[in-house]
Amino acid sequence: MSDKAGGKPGPRKSRSRSVRKGRGKGSTSKESMTVGVTVAVVVVVVLATFSYLTWFVAAPKAVIQPSTMRGFSLIARLTAACSTDDCRTAVAMMNTSVDPSANPCEDVYKYTCGNWDMVDEDGRLISYEQNVKNTYVNSVDSKLVGNATTDSLCRTTEPKAKMGCIYTSCVAFYTNRSSSLQDLLTAAKIDPNEWMRVKDFKELFYLGVRKIVDTGVVSVLNITKRDAQTAVIEVGTCISCSVDDGDSFMKFLLDQAVSIKVVDSASAKRLFKEFVDLDKSLKRVPSAPQGAAVVDADNSMFEVADLDTWRKALSGSHANFSSKSDDLKLMSSNSKGVGKVAAGLNEVSLKVAQLYTLLAPVAAFVALERSEAGRRASTKAFTARSKCLNNVAFLFPVPYDTAVASFLGAEKAAVTFNDLWSSVRLAGVKVLHLGKGLDLSKDAVMAASVGIKDASGLDNPTWVENYDGDFLANLVRYVRLGSRQFRASDFRSDAPLKGGFLPTNYFMPDYYYKGAIETTLNSGTLGTLTAAMLFRMSLPYLATEPTSYIKCLTDYSRNSLKLDMNEADWLKCTRASWAIEVALAATRQGTDQRPRRELDAMHYLRVARTFCGEDERDRVPLQFAARSSADFNQTFECNYPYPVMAC
């Protein structure tokens, strides 16, 4: 399946919701066992692991045939079962990809996706996931661009206009807009001339400490204010810590310093080796272990500057520390490391220490500029838009989610993402056993549920300055005025999962209904997707015996199902099967009646459709889960003996 979007369906090739690929199975039920199916308890466990269509369990006589159903086509029967226009539209959309001439017993993928023809802007066939993402990106892009103010400084406090300004500057950055070192220093409120005028290390120490506090940008040290009387001082970052090619990047950075006349070319060349050596020594200073306790700073931190010097430097900042330096309390979880950083700077020439501490706060931003500069000519507009929507969602989590919900009509949803996610978590701890040698514990599911956090729960920083068209300068302002440390990796990727938070903008359901039974349509994609993510997050806690289990699973698929499944596919199949079962259980929580058989079939088509456009190997979980399900045989009247899973 795939690893946070919605609204009413648009044109056939322009659906503005983003839900990821679902693959899977369903849970066995008493209703699904017809005459001749007296299955032992072991088989029940087995089918709970890999049966895909347990949801098709209804009265034994209500049988859906491959392409007809008592004289009506399957699609016509499903349409008749709908009670809302949205539901009928969803069925019509599914009908565009169904190939009724195919035999689902032989090839469920062809039956569901035989007429799938969604393409990208270049005319290439794309998957369901990518098509949903494309239409989502294009839809939100048009809304954000429309909300961007024409004032180049974006003088506004309205959230949508703010986001529009940041978004348009971001798209420009990835396609045609460069940022200079001077722009970044100006945005950080760092004056290079002031920096290079200092006469000795003590003066540099005062300036450096004050600027770290005032700018809020992490430098060689990271200093935060706990309260008016307490400063927490930790090891910061080195210049090469944000790149892979340290020496090359530092040469590039010094060249940038030469271009803005911070240092002349001859001096830069002469100082380069000492500059690199300093960086290497700072890189070796260990940071405090994660979760280390913050305690009163000990004497190892004051090797170069005594306690009074630290206090005077901090009280001279603009961070509203106590005006009386004697009242300041210094704390750290790594006093020894902080002392080593200060000592390292004190041991090199003043010029090198000046340059290093001047450039360190913006080095990661320069690294991001450098990494994108060579790609701008080939970066497609869609790629830039996709990256920038992620960036804006990361910078403005709460207003972004609210705005996107407004853009796409998600605020009208009867079942919100958070509601469905809560249901998936509850269902997940009830559906635990996966098969012999593969067990998912309740504790693992609960731990994973806690690990995935809705991004809308984050606080937004208070931005008090105007924006401009320079995205990197805007990022510097964000870090300086906000509350998060900048990591270039957050802005280099358009991956949908960042920092352990669940991006709700990618998880808006395809359709919205007020009829509780028809929420099965949303769970067909959204519920399966979230369950698959839950499985992935729980994976480190799985108890497995992979060798014997994988061999058994591979042999079973080949001998009993006539399906060529290699040993690399076992986890895909297990994850998809478990996710489908959890999604179904989540959909039915809180309902008094079981969905009708037609709606169960509709749920199956919605889930299966998320495989459309996938590579052949990625279709294996769909084929496996369908063929290993006795309910699939019953539902589609397949003339196969009920499979018996022994793994």
Automatic annotation (TrEMBL):
The chain crosses the membrane at residues 33-58. Gene3D superfamilies: Collagenase (Catalytic Domain) (3.40.390.10), Neutral endopeptidase , domain2 (1.10.1380.10). Keywords: Membrane, Transmembrane, Transmembrane helix. It comes from the Eukaryota. Residues 1-30 are annotated as: Disordered. This is Peptidase M13 N-terminal domain-containing protein. GO terms for cellular component: plasma membrane. GO terms for molecular function: metalloendopeptidase activity. The lineage of its organism: Eukaryota, Metazoa, Ecdysozoa, Arthropoda, Chelicerata. One of its GO terms (biological process) is protein processing. Residues 10-24 have a biased composition (Basic residues). It comes from Rhipicephalus sanguineus.
